[in-house]
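Course assignment 3, question 2. Fill in each field.
Student: A.L.
Task: Predict the tertiary structure for the chain below.
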Amino acid sequence: MKTILITGGSGLVGRKLSRLLIEKGYKVIWLSRERYIKAEIPRYRWDYQRNEIEKEALEQADVIVHLAGSNLGEDSWTRLKKQKIVESRVQTAQLLIDTLKSMNKKPEAFISASAIGYYGKKTTDKIYTEEDDSTESDFLSRTCRKWEDAAFQFQHELDVRTVVLRTGFVISKNSEAFRKMVLPTRFGLGAPIGSGEQYLSWIHIDDLCHMYLKAVEDTEMQGAYNAVSPEFITNADFMYTLAKSMKRPFFMPHVPAFFMRLLMGEAAGLILKGNRVSAEKIQNAGYEFQYNSSEEAIKASLKAIKEKEDKKRKRK
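Answer field:
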């Protein structure tokens, strides 16, 4: 039984992925702020700001899945928030590799999250593939380059098979971003955001977690892969599909871009801009999507949200 060490295990993807790996027979452990090895998923302490880590976790790890990182969509991008976004991704990876080198330990694989923000904050007719370089100067694109450079040090310095998954918008019952779309739509207030012409490259949480599972198990996988669905859809069409799935009207005017910038600051670019990102490489690697259309993914997540709310009501 192989042991998978996950950083950022308590997050949206980490929790779901942990359950999937355990179901598949793997042992899962987390690096966390607090040590709690008697938990259902044992937790070992680390603190990248103090350069501290419990080596016991790394000694056990056959594969490392690096999901740690301050939430991009949470809070405005102040100078301190930007610093935290970068450091929580880059310095954590550096702490891992420095510690592994000091231990003379080499895992079988290092699998890291990244984001499709790698390709830049803009909307064009281009379809981006993994062969396209990141040449944009916006904050998210620069962050993704640093994030991936830190990940690929495991390949360059330790000769460890390294996989990076550039993730799009995650559709899940537990996604705060998705639920923020659902809430106004539930009251008949669903609307395109900004121009609505920007593309929304999305992925259902189940597909994302199964991609991570494939990256763990498929020793042929190496390098960067876009973790997005094969469907190309604009923000306006996505919001219309959401309203249709919820049987709600869709007559509201667009949410003005200036309002989103006022609300979110620079982080508004996450939803006001978007491009088409290709899923061809991961499909050519043999991955078959469970959710090929946003309508399927939205309906599945809405059903899961309803079941979750029903359970809460019953407990009351």
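Instructor remarks: The CA atoms of residues 7 and 66 lie 5 Å apart. The mean pLDDT is 92.
Grade: pending
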